[in-house]
Design a protein that fits this description.
Length: about 290
């Protein structure tokens, strides 16, 4: 199979294209001495050429760089309390059993790369999580969080069933600055337990949604992300499940990141981790 690059290209860019990390992460790895190019330590700005050998943490990743990847973005419905990776499990495992599976353990294997979160979440966060095997896309969208709109739904205990949403402010002082909200509207609920949909212009201000209601003395029990840029959390997508974006959604995300759209050619994600091993075991038994 031909190399993904045929002319010299920056090494950290090539590694990011193959989902080994974001460009910023890989530059830090280089400065920490974790990346080798042929027989020497790699430095930011080094060029990769076909035939070079690349090692990350002592592991030869050259074969990965020879695989042409089809850029993929998945929307995942993250449950509250679900860690993003196994390394960020809760400090104290639950006494009743093993710790919960992480998001990355539930995703399908992606050949020659790994999944990167576009909108990283803490274990306590829930809702729409976007992951990609394209480190360039993840890095570009993370840098643009101040210009990407998003939406959340919040479950709030209101003082009375006839609570007027118009009484809520459209701005709140949070973390040393004043943040404005594009829209707040009712989204269901009964009695004094009500849901509100909140649209925010800045994607990384998740905690500000809670601060908006608490500034009025209201108690917030849940905040769930339901939209990021042009991607809405599908209503029929259960927690712990994922779905690939449509070509149109994918193209719009690349446009938002100011990157050329993918051509859709390459190697699709493989089966879920462990599925290949189970299939092999069944074949041997038969």
């Amino acid at each position: 199979m031909p190399e993904i690059v045929s002319v010299p290209e920056r090494l950290h860019k090539v590694l990011a294209q193959h989902g080994l990390g974001s460009r910023r992460e890989i530059e830090k790895w280089m400065l920490a001495g974790r990346v080798r190019l042929n027989q020497r330590l790699a430095q930011p700005g080094d060029q990769y050429r076909p035939g070079d050998r690349v090692f990350v943490d002592g592991k030869d990743v050259t074969a990965r760089l020879r695989v042409t990847l089809a850029p993929q973005v998945l929307v995942y419905h993250k449950a509250q309390g679900e860690p993003l990776t196994p390394s960020v499990m809760g400090e104290t495992p639950a006494a009743s059993g093993p710790p919960p599976k992480s998001v990355m353990e539930r995703l399908p294997a992606v050949r020659g790369a790994r999944w990167l979160a576009i909108n990283p979440m803490q274990p306590g966060d829930s809702g729409l999580l976007l992951v990609t095997n394209d480190g360039r896309l993840a890095d570009a969208l993370r840098r643009r969080v101040d210009t990407i709109s998003t939406a959340y739904v919040a479950r709030v205990l209101v003082p009375s069933p006839d609570f007027d949403v118009e009484s809520l402010p459209r701005a709140v002082h949070y973390d040393g600055e004043t943040l404005e909200f594009e829209d707040v509207e009712p989204a269901g609920g009964e009695g004094t337990n009500r849901w509100f949909r909140v649209k925010v212009a800045r994607a990384h201000r998740r905690a500000a949604v809670r601060a908006l209601f608490e500034s009025c003395g209201l108690k917030v029990s849940r905040v769930i992300q339901v939209r990021f840029a042009n991607v809405e959390l599908p209503r029929d997508l259960p927690r712990g499940r994922h779905r690939a974006l449509t070509p149109a959604q994918l193209a719009l995300l690349y446009r938002l990141a100011d990157l050329p759209p993918p051509d859709g050619q390459g190697v699709p994600p493989g089966p879920r981790r462990g599925a290949r091993r189970r299939s092999s075991q069944r074949s041997r038994r038969s």
